[in-house]
Amino acid sequence: MPFNQPAPELTNQYVDDRVLRSYLRRALPAEVLQQIEPQLTEMGELAGGPLYGFQRADRLSEPVHTPWDAWGNRIDQVEVSALWRTAEQLAARHGLIAIPYERALGAWSRVHQFALVYLFTPSTDVYSCPLAMTDGAARTLSVAGNADLRTRALPHLTSRDPREFWTSGQWMTESTGGSDVGLSETVARQDDQGRWRLYGRKWFTSAVTSRMSLTLARPEGNPAGGKGLALFYLETRGEDGHLNNILVHRLKDKLGTRKVPTAELTLDGTIAVPVLGLSEGIRNIAPMLNVTRTWNSVSAVSYMRRGIALARDYALKRIAFGAPLAEKPLHLDTLAGMQAEFEAAFHLTFLLVEMIGRDEAGELSAEEKDLLRLLTPIVKLTTAKQCVSAVSEALECFGGAGYVEDTGLPMLLRDCQVFSIWEGTTNVLSLDALRAVSGVSALDALGRRVAALTSTVTDARLLEPARQAEQAILEAVRWLEATSKHGTEGVEAGARRFALTLGRALGLALLVRHAQWGLNAESDERSLAAVLRFASHGVKSIGDSDLGLSRSLALG
Ligand code: MFK
Fold it and tell me: Which of 96, 282, 298, 299 is the best mutation target for the ligand 1 pocket, counting ligand atoms within 8 Å of the beta carbon and taking the most?
């Protein structure tokens, strides 16, 4: 027999996850952890065992769009992969959407939900996409005050019964609009029975596999721009099972997330119901954006974790130059750098998750609400960038095998590349962060939060990283104040570096707090090691740039 390298393997993904488990031990009341741990263990077993095996076996299957039946009828059927069908059942049974709406654990319900989502996501081929949309739609309908729609849709979106469970789409992107949603061209017009009908082309949608969707359209006669759009609810099929005047043109041929049946659609008289008035559509769909951006952050850390788990297992088995990779100083150093980035991203994401849970339980002060508004774009953009970089590194840990499709590894990188694109690109979210800090107390609240986190430090080794985090926030605030005095161009040019500085500095402060707790409560030095390494990567990237020079560098 010729020699073959051993394939990487996964064990129970909850039991094996030191970072998740130590976070839960610190953050949750003991009785809450005791209550949810059996479910987390079950999900960890599924994710590292049968679902991971299913995913590899199902690697090549992709959604299929059948526009016509044999007799010439337009049917636009979209069949998803076998793993997706299983994932839908599991998601409903495990309450992945239901948990925060049942709110059985009060403010901790979001932590419960997203700890499960974090385990579930990397083994289910981006089924988290329709789930994110479903959660976003449930949240939007919960707060919109439209009793009819709430009564009709919410019980389905939050059902634990797979036969009753609906997923939702979010149809926002148009070819004119893209990130600039206010340019959308879809119009809404009332028919002679007073029903609203939508006409237009949606360019990048979760397909018609969802039972309902939230979408934007401009009631005829409304002004241009985002304020003239209205938020509509639609069901994709009528009582007879036929599509609701929707044509599916094609599924997108994408770099990754190829299991997601992303489609181009035409709405040609689609019956829809206004959710909340006939204007201010962007403001009214914002609750959905903020929920889906949180799902994006949780997905990003879950992919980092998956890449590292596989690379770590392989490092213990793969022998090169006379020893396992795990005994090679340079390989260890590489893994340690990935792990430090992951740990900071993890704590950043779960702070966001905790705050959403407290918000929904009515526990946030006005200042904390401003902070939450700022954290949503900051955490999304920071973790997406960290994820692409860490997963790329994880592939490299396998040498050439990481570049070979049937190891299943390249798909990780292709899929995670989308985290910095959809739900708002890094630059669009950096501008959103500027919107979130203008005229409100979010930056003060962030500074105070960082100071509170670093004030827990007693171990001398954590003092310098704590100071580094505080200093980075201070300098970012000063930069914003000073640059704003000279107009908006400089602020806009520096927005990404400003946003990343806030995200990484807060990540460091959170890691510092967790490391001190780890030393005190568990005599565990591993989070301390993560702090020292993450701090050495640097957290600050603000700085003035000369726009003239940048222009000649970028375009010259
Ligand atoms: C696994 C993870 C799951 C993810 C699956 C994703 C699959 C779907 C594929 C997609 O990519 S879906 C499409 C994603 N597209 C976007 O996320 C849009 C990106 N663009 C933006 O976010 C822009 O910032 C935005 C369209 C919102 C800017 O538009 P405008 O017209 O310049 O909005 P404007 O005037 O700034 O904001 C309108 C109102 O909404 C304002 O309130 P007021 O009217 O009261 O002043 C804003 O404050 C408010 N607003 C905007 N963004 C908000 C928000 N409020 C709260 N939170 C936000 N995030």
Answer: 282
